[in-house]
Every structure is written in C-alpha cells, then in structure tokens.
C-alpha cells in the first residue's frame, strides 16, 4: 500500500507509525523516534531521519535491532517464519529455492559469521545476485568487528531505503533504481540493426542462467531496459546477440559457418543504482563494445 | 617416413608405387596410373596427377574406390579394422571415443547416407571439428546423387593432399596448414598487454571444451600460434582473455567486481587453410575485435 | 509571418492566396490552382497539392515558371533585384559575398547551363554548402534535358517545402530539418568526457572554415545539436576534439607531445533531413567513430 | 666511410683517432681519451666510453667543448662555415632553408639562450621536426643552468650516437632508428584493404606538409615503413587514407558524397627510437585507430 508523503506528514502520530513502523525489521521504535521531526521535506529526508535514529541509538539497542534480522537462507526462511518483507526480498534472488548443498553452504557461512560477530549476516539482497551474496559473505567474514558492524548498518540503510521507496510516494524520492540498456549498430550498413535477438544471462559460479530476452527495434534499441525499475543486482552477466542471423537476413557474405554468429558480451555490474549502457557495434567481421552512457 | 620428391621422380616404378601407393584408400592403382608421368615438378603436381587419375577412371572403378572407404565412426573403427591412416585421422577429431549415444547417432546417419547414395560418407576429418562433421553429414544428406559424388571426390582430394604432404617433401608443397593467432593490445596504456592468460575453447553443440591455453609475451602475442602446422578444423570457437587480472596487476581502477574480467570472443573458422588473426584491443571499460591479417 | 493551417483552410480565397501566393517564385497561379482543394489535412498535403499544380501545368507554363527564377549568384543578386525569399536563401550559403573569381566561375556556369537547357540553374541552396552547389552545377550540366528539367522541379519542391514550413504551422508539418550531434566517451575512464572543446569545420575546396564551437556537458554531449533546426547542408565537414587537453586535465600519461591531441573526424553529409550522430570513443592511445543514431 | 669495429679495435692509435676523432664536434681529445680502453666489445660500448670521457672531463673543458657547437640555423650555417656533419644534420630538418622571418626567430632564440646560459643551444636535430625544435627551444629557455647543461650533454649523446652508428659497424650497434608503419583493414569485407592511397603530413605550426605517399599492398600494409632507417622526428603528423576510393572501387554504397572519403589520423611522435604502428580499421561508416605494435 502506498502512502503519500504529504499525508504522512500530517497524519496522527499513531497512523504515521502504523504506516512506516515495519520498515525497520521488528523495530517500530525507529518510526516512533522520528514522528516528532515531521514534516519531512522529501521521502529521502524521511529515510535519512529514520537511519539517523538507528545510528543515534545506544549500542545495545542497535545490537538487539541487528540481531532481530533473520538468517539469510536460514531455518526461519525454510520454516516460513519470516516477516513478509524479508520473505519477499529473499525470494527475489532465489534464496527460497536453494539446493540442499547450497542451503548447507549458507548454513555454514551463517554459523561462522554469527560465531565471529555475534549477529546475523545482513545484506540488501535486491542489490545482489546469488553469486555476489556468496562473495560478500566470504569477504565480510574477514572484516574486523567494527568494520563489519558499520557494514551491517549500511546494508540496513540500503534495505530500508528500498522499503521506504516502495511504500511512500512524494517529493525527493531516493534513487534506488538502476538501468541496463543496449544498442546494436550495424556499422557495415551504417545504421541501427533492427530485429536482432538478444539474450541476457546471469552467472552463478560457472553456470549462466538466461534472465531476459529481447529484440532490437528500428533504432537498434530494446523497447524497455533489459533491467530497470529496480536496483541492478551486483554480479556477472552476459549479453548474447544473434548477429549472424541479422547479416544473413540482409544477404551479406559472412563465411560458412559465419565468422560471427552469437556475439557474447560478458561484463559485471558493480553499481546497483547506476546506468549501464552496453552497446554492440558490429560488422560480419568485427565488433566492439564499451560502457556507454 | 618421408620421401624426397627428387628421389621419387627417379625411383624404380615399383619403389615409387610402394612409397605412395597407400595414399588413396585401398587403391594402389592410382599410383600405378601416374608412375609414367614422372618427373613431377612439384609435390602439388604429383597430388594433382593422382587426383586426375581418379577423376579419369571409369565410373564403376571410381565407385568401388569410394566404397572402399570405412564408415566414419563406424563398426570397423570400433573393431580396429581401419587402415593405419584412417585410424589416425578419425582419432584426431575424437571419433574413436564417442559415447554410446553419439555412436548411435553416427550409425543412424551412416545408414541413412549409404541407403540414399550407395557409398559411405567421406569427409576430410582433419579439416573439421566433431560439430562440423555432424553439420556436414546432415547437410550433405540433402544433396542429390551427382552433387554428393562430386563432394565425396573433393573430400578425397583434401584427405589425400594431406597424406601426400605428410609423406613427400620437395618443391611446391600443397598448402594444407592454417593458422590461428591473437594479439592483446592494452589501449588504456597504449602498448601490448603482456602476461594475459588466454584459453581457447572449441564448441560441440552447446558445450565448450578447452583445447589450448597460452599467455601473451612482451609483444602481446603468443609465442606459437594457438592452432598451427595443420588445417584449422572448421567449427565454432571461443577465446577467453583474463583481462581483469591484467588491469588488476597494473593497479587500474576497474570497478568491484571489474566491469570486464574474462572477455570471450566467439567466432567460427570456415577456411581450414586460412590465417585467422583474432586480436583483442581493450581497456577496463571497452574492447574490440576483428578478423585481422 | 506565421499562418495557422486551420485559418488558411477557412480563409477567403483571396486571403489564402495572399498568404501563400509568393511561395512559388513569381507564380501566384499555383496558390490559385489549389484554393478550391481546401481544406488540407496537413501542411505536407498543402505543399504537395501546390507541387501537383506545378506538375500538372502545361509545359510552356512550367517553363515560364522555371525561367522566372533568378540566376544563382547572378547579376540580379548583385544588383539587389531578387525577391526577398531568394535573397535570404542565397545569402545563407554565402553566395552574396563571393570573390570576383568565384563570381566569374558562377557566371560561366550559369551561362553554360542556360545555353544548354534554356532555363536558369535552380538548386535548394539551404540543403547545400557552397562546395556542394558547385559540384551539383558541374554534375547537372552533364544531364540530358529531360532529366535536368525533372531535377529542377525536384529542387523547386525542396525550396517551396522549406518556404511553406516557414510560413504555415499546423498538423503534418513536412520534415525539413536534420540534426548533427556528437558524444565523447572516455573509454580510458569508462565514462562520458566532460568539458571537451569541439570545433566544427565546413570544407570549401581544400579550405576548412570553422562554423561552430561547443564543449561537452556532463553526459559527454553538447547542449544543443552542432547543426539543427534546419536542413543539414550537403557537404564535407570536420569535427575536431581537444582530447589531449581532456586527458591532461585528468593527469593521465599520454606522451610528450601527447600521442593524440586534436582528433579530427572528417565526414560528409548527404541527407539534409537526416540525423547524423558522429561520436568519439577515445583513450590517450586510440579512438573510434561511426555514424550512429 | 664505414669502419669495422674489429678493425678499429686493433688499429694503430693514430688511425683510431683519425677514424672517430671528428665524432665529437671540434673535440678530437675525446677519441684520444678512450683509445687506451680498447678493445670495445660493441659499438654501443665505444660510444658510451666516449661520452664517459666527456662527462669525466673538467668543467672548463666540457664548457669549451659545448661552446664549440655552432648555432642552430645561425650565421655560421648561412655563411657555410659549419663542419660537414653539422651542415648535413641541420639541412635534414630544413634549417638551411628558413624564411627571413624564421631565421629572425631562431636568431632571437639563440641570442636569448646564449645570454642566459653562456653556451649555444644544442639539440639532436635528426630526432626532431622543425616544429619540435622551436618547442624545445622555448621550453629549455625556462630551465635552470644545471638542468640545461645536463640537457645539452644528453643531446650531444644523441648526436654522437647517430654519428658513431653511421661510421662504425659491428657487434652491439646502438639503437638509433625508429619506425612508423600502418595497416588498413577493411572490416566491411573482413580482409586487408589493398591499393589504398596514403599520404603522410608533418605539421609546422598550423600548416601540414606532405612528406610521404604510399599505397597499401595485398596485406593492407605499405611495402616500406612510412618512416624508417632513421630516428622518427618528434613532432605532429597526419596520415590521410583515401578510403572513399577504396569502397567505390568495391562498388559499396557509401552515400553521395560518401560519409567517409579521406580519413585523417592525427598523432604525435614522442619517442624517436620507437615503433609507431598506426593502423586504420574501417567500413564506409566507421573507423578506429590505435597505437599498435
């Protein structure tokens, strides 16, 4: 359910708290701490005030709050005991459908992490692929306690910024969405390549999973971004362009088999809120790509 | 065993026939037909004279000759009943180690082919990958009889040209070898990229098999061609360049994870005797490739 | 003065003719011929109807009409005896400021043309550079009479389409404007190059005249098209990008003197109503360009 | 006249000094200082020993030696009073054919330089274009005395290394030559572009002088380097490729006028002993270049 910022600014305190109180996991006190700071000039300001309340809280309260988060891909998830928001977030990256082996790996990492730091591993899963979550897990296990506590709070900021952006509309929305786009130019003909079939794959380890398909329009672009309207999950990707078919349809000599047929462009996304433009300039005998804008 | 063309030109007829008589499968008459045409000015001329004898032979002799070739990946191969040359050639492309399923597929294709054309499927396997042989098989099954008989003779010309080139040395060697090379230019630094790890994969269906590894030298090239000293097997390939490691070793900012890490270049080879130069020009944020020279 | 198409559609016949009667040079009969065809569904339809009237006129009327056009860069222009529209058009391409030598060259071409064809040379000067007009002149002198008469009418269509588009507003405006744009990507840094100084030159013979300057904004583009809001004059151009300064300001090693400093991109425009996007992708050691979209 | 290093190593001392004594301008004492160090293992070692003698000389002897050099483009040059070697070197870069204005500019710079430093401006002219010499002159005038004296000795090392390399043959020749090469790949056709006309221009200020012409061979290269067998003069250059003619001869649609006709690549040379490979990859609608190897 959406709430207008203007409405929240003038709502009764209890109504305000009911509306945004579940933003911070099991921590309605965060909303209560900021209700007196209204009105907020922007949705971003509301979120920053709530994060400010978390950062200003005494250490034991912060720790209790952090500990209130569920394990990632943990037993609570298996048992269906998550909050609705956590359940939805974990499912978005496939953590609800792990194999026994993957579940066991997450279980071992969760245990090692909690033993070292005394709180559960928290990551904004919507900003990551499954591959990247595992990388983060292993990398953050090497942190010292202070660095890792700060990292956990930063991840909570990412998580709650997304929750607020999904719940509240109004001025000054936080920037939470990225965009992945492409463009195919046929530099043999000197014009956009229309009708080129495109596949987008995401890597998990060595395996590539197809996550989107598209075809280029008359301007050589796709009608919609390949990923858009959400954070771009950090991870490794491959775009595949059926340019052999394109030049075959134009009747261009390209060898038998064609020198280029399916052109793969493999790249990583590191900035979930960024714009990644990954175009392909091609002839039957050459191609180039770059991070564009 | 190597024979000098000059020696063959002045050898006793029987010795000439003994030396090159097994070039054409189970057909010593081909050597006998050309012994009187000596001396040959070049190794190429010797081979062309022998093919001329085949093409000039009566149709029933040609057919018997063609029928004398073993099935590709057939029962004779399994039973160890091939000539030494055929055994070596079929092994070069892995036809001696097919799975039961692949063996069955070849068996079905062989049967269909012989039923349609009345002679076994002949292909110069050293000019093909396994993938390409299967493509050829299915494509050639659609030929009419005359076209296919001419195709079989052309493949025999390829096979025997390689056999002659492996047996006879001297002036005017036939061109039987191709070359696959690469070059990595770091256009961020404006110089060749040294020490870049490269892998070469060959595709069979959707699976990629690694067939070579190399690292670039100070000139950004590999010390030896990726494939050389033999025909380039027609088929689909992928070069993979570890350019993320290269830029990491130079200490260059490239994102986390790096925008480009392993760069795959996927291409096909269609000319076994050609030179394929497939270079990579790259920065941490862009790359290009082309069929060079 | 602008006229709304809707107003023209319902104006008194005399008012309609007063408004658009001077579109066709000294030929008010063209407007009179179409006044009864109103209402026009679009500005394009109005123009096409007027051209239809020209094409449907008897040959002697057409010829008188064509002969009513002034010489290009002729004595009438020198004497100030042109219609306002012709004067403005000829001035746009510098035909009012020719040197004595250039004037003499135009004079010779005009004489040769009129002697061969019996009517003056007509070209839509706003779709050409001075260089291209001279090329057209020499090329069209080789036409036969029928081809050249058709060419003259086509040029009149271009001229009057622009005049109508400048005079009448409303639905279905004819497409008369092109656009020349650029984009500078720093593929060394993986982002748009901001603040790059750009110059645009037009060639007349071997000489290049600077016709525009710009600097790239944060997205690596110019705030306005390099040429826009008018037909792109057919001709030869050069863009020059001060990329040496760009990399110097980033503190990047680029040699002394820098391997690349001013990068010139030389290209021609052939489609006045087209979009020419001519981007530059560059590092201190490499660059590429293409006709984009 | 060439001398073999082996001969010089065993020649009588007077003969050795006669052979190489004029290497250092008006300073036969340099050869005398090293005659006892023979045999030299390489030509490079001979030159380094001679430079060692210069660097080891007392300051007043060094200064007298440096002062023995003629002014660049100075009165001695005009009056024909140079040593043969100096005359030849200065002519190589056109300093013997300056306009009055240029002569006056050099005169002013020479005077300012000698007034500041007390010795004449010395530069290895064969490693520079005229443009670059003027740049060096103005840049070095800003040096402090110690830096500039070291710079003068370094330039003398360059000058004498070239003189020794031209005079003495044998093991371990110093590397004094650079190479400028190009390569034209037609990525529309996927093969080298043969028969492309190429011009090489050198810039002096804003003016470009054509210094070489060539055409590509079947491999898309020029039969000889564009500059080779000598140091590459530091300076600014432009290569121009007639690719419009190339694609016209192939019958490829490229617009009228062609989008690309003469493609200019403008670059600078900073390393006289380096290899500059400046290739062009092109279609009728795109091109790229890079510093290759």
Q: For the residues shown, what is the average pLDDT of chain A?
A: 94
Please give the domain count of chain A: 2
> In angstroms, what separates the terminal alpha carbons of chain A?
34 Å
Largest interface: A-B, 29 and 28 residues
State the strand order across the main sheet of chain A.
Answer: 5-4-12-13
Low-confidence stretches of chain A: none
Oligomeric state of the chains in view: homotetramer
Structure explained in plain terms:
Chains A, B, C, D: It is an enzyme of class 4 (lyase). Chains A, B, C, D: InterPro entries: Hydroxyisourate_hydrolase, OHCU_decarboxylase, OHCU_decarboxylase-1, OHCU_decarboxylase_sf, Thyroxine_BS, Transthyretin/HIU_hydrolase, Transthyretin/HIU_hydrolase_d, Transthyretin/HIU_hydrolase_sf. The structure is a homotetramer of 293-residue chains. By secondary structure, chain A is α/β, with parallel strands linked by helices. Chain A has 2 domains: 3-169, Orthogonal Bundle (UraD-like), CATH 1.10.3330.10; 178-288, Immunoglobulin-like. Chain A has 11 helices and 13 strands. In chain A, the strands form 4 sheets. A 4-stranded mixed beta sheet of chain A has the order 5-4-12-13, with no helix packed on it. In chain A, a hairpin with a 4-residue loop joins strand 4 and strand 5 (191-192). The longest helix of chain A is centred in the middle third of the chain and has 23 residues, at 145-167. Chains B and C meet through loops of B and loops of C.
Outline:
Chain A is an alpha/beta fold and 293 residues long. The first copy, chain A, has eleven helices and 13 strands.
């Amino acid at each position: 359910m959406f709430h207008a910022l203007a409405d929240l600014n003038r709502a009764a305190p209890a109504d305000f708290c009911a509306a945004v109180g579940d933003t911070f996991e099991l921590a309605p006190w965060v909303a209560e701490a900021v209700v007196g700071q209204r009105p907020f000039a922007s949705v971003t300001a509301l979120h920053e005030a709530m994060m400010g309340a978390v950062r200003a809280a005494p250490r034991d309260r912060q720790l209790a709050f952090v500990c209130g988060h569920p394990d990632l891909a943990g037993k609570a998830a298996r048992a269906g005991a998550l909050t609705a928001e956590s359940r939805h977030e974990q499912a978005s990256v496939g953590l609800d459908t792990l194999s026994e082996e993957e579940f066991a790996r997450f279980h071992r990492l969760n245990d090692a992490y909690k033993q070292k730091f005394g709180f559960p591993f928290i990551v904004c899963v919507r900003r990551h692929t499954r591959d990247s979550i595992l990388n983060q897990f292993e990398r953050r296990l090497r942190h010292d306690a202070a660095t890792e506590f700060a990292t956990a709070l930063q991840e909570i900021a990412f998580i709650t910024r997304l929750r607020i952006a999904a719940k509240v509309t109004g001025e000054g929305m936080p920037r939470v969405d990225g965009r992945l786009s492409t463009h195919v130019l046929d530099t043999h003909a000197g014009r956009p390549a229309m009708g080129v079939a495109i596949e987008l794959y995401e890597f998990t380890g060595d395996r590539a999973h197809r996550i989107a398909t598209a075809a280029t329009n008359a301007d050589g672009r796709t009608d919609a971004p390949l990923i858009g309207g959400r954070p771009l999950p950090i991870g490794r990707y491959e775009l595949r362009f059926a340019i052999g078919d394109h030049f075959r349809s134009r009747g261009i000599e390209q060898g038998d088999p064609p020198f280029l047929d399916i052109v793969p462009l493999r790249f990583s996304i590191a900035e979930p809120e960024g714009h990644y433009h990954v175009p392909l300039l091609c002839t039957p005998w050459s191609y180039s790509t770059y991070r564009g804008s």
